[in-house]
Amino acid sequence: MANCHKFFLEFNNLIALKSKRKKTLRTSRDAVRERIRRYFRYKQNGFHPRFHGQGSFMMNTIIEPLDGEFDIDDGIYFKVEAEPSQSVSTFHRWINEAIDGHTKQDSIDKQTCVRLVYAEDYHLDLPIYYIIEGQTPYLAHGSKGWIKSDPREFIKWFNDQSDDKGQLKRIVRYLKAWSDYRKSRGSKLPSGLIFSILAANNIVFHERDDVALYETLKNIKSSLEGNFVCYRPTTPAYENLLEEYSKTNKDYFLGQLASFTQSAEKSLHKDTSQADACKAWQRHFGNVRFPFESEEFIENYFQIDIRYNLKIDCLVLQKGFRPHSLTEMIVSRLPLIRGKSLKFHIVNCNVPKPFQVKWKVRNVGEEAIKRNQIRGQILNDGGNHEKIESSDFHGAHFVECYIIKNNICVARDRINVPIKLSR
Length: 423
Description:
The chain is an alpha+beta fold. The protein has helices at 5-15, 19-43, 56-59, 88-99, 151-161, 167-184, 192-202, 209-226, 247-267, 274-285, 326-331, 366-370, and strands spanning 49-54, 70-80, 108-109, 114-117, 122-126, 128-132, 138-141, 145-148, 303-304, 310-317, 324-325, 336-337, 341-349, 356-364, 375-380, 386-390, 395-405, 408-420. Strands 1, 2, 3, 4, 5, 6, 7 and 8 form an eight-stranded mixed beta sheet that branches. Strands 9, 12, 14, 15, 17 and 18 form a six-stranded mixed beta sheet that branches.
């Protein structure tokens, strides 16, 4: 049975919002908060806004979408002693006025929030609430008026369902990445909120993420086929988030869910190879982001009996500079950066001739996944006992050399190639 757990962890690292991006978003959010505070200090109308983040950003299930466009939610709360006499539209107008000119694009007044659009292809949604001490907040809804809603309660509920190892949050990210991939192909699956609830209600924890996702998909599929509902577990309680799904949308979602579950089952079958398992997952995540196992292993082709010595090194070449030994650079802690020509060659080999030489180049890490350049195939030597490569992109890489004699691998060596992003 193929084991794709490590690929899912790589996939998670690739789709999860990076800490640097989170810091930028917090800085943008905090600047908007201060702008709104200043507006109400100047207005002196008795309202003093408070703020509380909500949604996937606060739950740490947010992902980097394929189209680069995503949103974060920041609730604006006005503590009052009774329902305000001002209308919902007045509160929306105040927030629109407060953030006017903060970005080049005009804010958008939506039913449930005021949206601030940034040029970097993300937007900040600002839902507005009033809250009376000890009671449930009320959301300013453009068409429904003030309605009970408590996203803070939902965050607490979700965190209570989560495990210490973060598997539930990763499962939610995988489901959102699946939805994101379908969206990129012109189709639509449920929202991140719905997937968060479905995952939390049907999670099957396992030491492997591929197994956990498959078992969770099975449970979600069985649950929805029995009763196509997804109830919000917090205020407004018992709201069925799938209630307005048309038959067409329902059938499409269930069909995609069945296909996804079937592929997951295939990937875990005892006769499925690692490569075919990756292909099965790529059907639903795309081959741009989900890793593909292309690595070959010498043990699968030849008997191993290491009885001779083999030593390889690499000359680092660049026009106008003298060549350097990669081994010496690593010992001296000199960085290997991009844009160099790399000539891997045999330094010492005591295997009696005749023999065959084979090479393997393996790229690992986030950048290799993005470029779909994991590699790892075992290739024949061109006849000069050397392998020419280049330091195209940063990350951890390695090159292995094998000596084959009488159909037996009798010597092997490996050199690590740590390519830095810059000097």
